[in-house]
Design a protein that fits this description.
Blueprint: H1 10-53, H2 74-82, H3 85-116, H4 122-131, H5 137-150, H6 157-161, H7 168-178, H8 184-191, H9 196-207, H10 209-225, H11 228-233, H12 242-246, H13 257-277, H14 279-288
Length: 293
Amino acid sequence: MGQECPDQTQLPIAENWRGHRARRALSRLGVHAILSLMGVLVVIPFLWMVTTSLKPADQVYSPPFLLPAHFAWQNFVEAWNEAPFGRFYLNSAVMAIGITAGQLIFSSLAAYAFARLRFPGRDVLFFVFLGTMMVPIYVTLIPTYLIVHRLGWINTYPALIVPRLVSPFGIFLMRQYYLTIPAELDEAALMDGASRLGIWRRVILPLSRPALAALGIFAFLFAWNDFLWPLVVTKATAMRTVQLGLAMFQGRYETRWTLLMAGTVTATLPGIAVFLLAQRRFIESIALTGLKG
């Protein structure tokens, strides 16, 4: 018997398949190249911050800009001793933890009402809350300050924490996540005699850990990096926060870059630590939130 000839009709299909795979490989390579370039662009400012914090003051503008000639670790000691940064870190920690805890509690409670309870004007009220996200903070800054001043809270922790305990974004985020949780769980708990508050605490919250982690990260980073509101409501040095303390290194005529970057490095570490601890839950919330509207 002679050797069988290949089916001529399958040759174009095989060639098209190989061409398709090549195009997919080139497309993926291009995507990875773009993402790698964007990652480098994001990392360079942080790298400059770290290397500048380790340079002597007379080498800040000397090349190579991203590689210190020798490491000046004393910059961190000088930055810490320049001002009462221990007190500044304590104030920032109290403020950030208080705001984060408040937003997790109040936002999750309000979101449960908007997602599960039925009452007149619920949808209208929810859209009003969403509308407040479009109002610039500068519009509400003066009225909020007047309220805090009338209450006698200037230079106190309540002034730093209470006005930021409720977040429209947090309510929106938690509501969208609650909508992904089957309502049958609530009905089963109601049949077992659980109250609405008990359902929220025993059923909804344990299932909402990814969304709570995401909201906690956003709230903590916003509070920790806030500059304007602490500047407005604190006058005494003992009540200043880390971000206000870093501004002390910037003068009218010069900026002490080495000390400023050393302080910025230490001020960045808590936010990075919080994100790394809640990273897995945060990614889960991004994947799940908003699947149902």
